[in-house]
Amino acid sequence: MKKLYFLLLISAFSLTVFAQSDENMGIIPVPASIKKNSGQFVLDKTVVLVSAEATNAKNADLLNAFIVSKGGFALRTEKALTKGQKAIVLTAVGADDLPAEGYSINISTNEIKVVGKDAGLFYAIQSLMQLMPEKKNDKITIQAATIKDYPRFGYRGLHLDVARHFYTSSFVKKYIDRMAAYKLNTFHWHLTDDQGWRIEIKKYPKLTTIGASRNGTIVGNYPGTGGTDEVPYKGHYTQEEIKEVVAYAASKYITVVPEIEMPGHASAAIAAYPELSCFPERDTWVGENAPWSGTRKGKQVQQTWGVFDDVFVPSENTFKFLEGVLDEVITLFPSKYIHIGGDECPKAYWKESAFCQQLIKELNLKDEHGLQSYFIQRMEKYLNAKGKSIIGWDEILEGGLAPNATVMSWRGVDGGIEAAKLNHDVIMTPGSMGLYFDHKSSASPDEPLTISGLQSGFSNYTKVYNYDPVPSVLPAEQKKFVRGVQGNVWTEYIESAEKVEYMILPKMLALSEIAWGQLDRKNLTNFTEERLPLHLAKLDGAGTNYWVPTPIGQAAGILNGKEHTISLKTPVAGAKIYYTLDNYRPTETGALYTAPFKVNVPEGKKKILKTVVITPTGKRSVVLETVLNNGATDVKTK
Ligand code: ACM
Fold first, then answer.
1. Would the pTM count as exceeding 0.90?
2. Residues with Cβ within 6 A of ligand 1?
């Protein structure tokens, strides 16, 4: 018990040291400006929480609940400040002069004054909470400072695919909690795909009685060799659950943008209602190159990944169906935007279908791309008439962009550039820049099963951090069409909620920094060495899984020379670095890194430094190897 107490003290101490030395006081995303002042505000039970406006009451309660959790005491609340009283003052007075979603915090020895309203005040409180130490204490000391803050982008998104794998609404709420803590404001909920339809639609019950279940799931990487597991898999959200999630998100200033995929990725809907296919009688094609390649009887919810030819037929019946679906979707989601997918729609069935070919002629379209454009434009018109706007993946540029559409650029940045040049709004989500969070963080064999990634397909937090969503090639007047940035979380290979967390963290924190933080405040070293270790330590203690970064200061690969100085820093406050130089995998039985040391390598030899980071709750990094080479002949230099 004593030992545990000591360990807790040590980790609380190391968190404090990190925060106090940091010019940004540990805040993620980095504030637009922060200036430390002399002195400290000591928060104890004598402090009064002053909140005059009714609109601020919810945010005042949020702060007070947090103080109860950290200090074990609640603050007395007042409507007005008594002169001389030590107080935290929340006020909307002056908030109208701030940029959208902006706030200011002024911490002096006698007062913390927070100016903001609605989302701005909520974000101020997120920052303030980050300034409070982790350990429970009846006196919470906060460094005096002046903070002024507002976001770079109005759209700060994180996506979740719940079709390939399904996650409970309680996990979705936890996901939303994390987003809100880091000032992300848009949750893109990918609700339908080939492998499952996950939203109850009352007019079309078979979408969930049939479309939400599949008979198995591919084992290993696509196309794989292991077949499917033949274990039935199902899940969907009732409309009540959806409403609850949407309201929960709204309470944290997060808009939920639903995605209903069309015209491709429609296998689950077609399994439920085969008449939505060009060829209702045709058996389901289950994929190229797979050992089981070929067809399965009837229309099936897909069990393997990839892209499938059986897409929505652009018939009046299909449009009526989709309008019926969207009518219910728009009553559930107050979001201005509805995402209609539009990606990866093969044209093979449309080419083969006499109906589609006749339609192309009748509509005087050029080809099947024209037909896709017609499809999207019709849906846009329908939604625009209901006061909604569409977002689509960048394929909606092909064959002619719908007049008011926002484009989500995922196949690199070119789609975003093209759309911005057409004066259309753009959200940047390029996989090539690290924004596909389902891609693995490193090449280590210790990484779990993921979508197989080439080097360019890696996604780690430094790559995300280094990305600037505004393409430099855009002329100044078109840069403004880049409304924001988003991380995407496709879940073919993410079977559990814990693995979702492993894949998105700490990338999500880097995303928050590029989505919210001003460009001139970007500083990867400060982020990695000062602030991230603190946040990862907090997540460690909060029951959240994450990818543990490898030691700061260790380069992967080969270092040439006779004498090497090994100087490392822990990437998680309170975590330990263990290493070996004897070719064994490091664990707690390795040497504990405590201070820089020298390694001498004899002429013609090499030594391999292998490290592992182990956090206070036992999470581990991948093992990182550095070859210390002094002319060994078996070392390949690249
Ligand atoms: C996508 O990754 N198919 C948008």
1. yes
2. 343-344, 393, 410
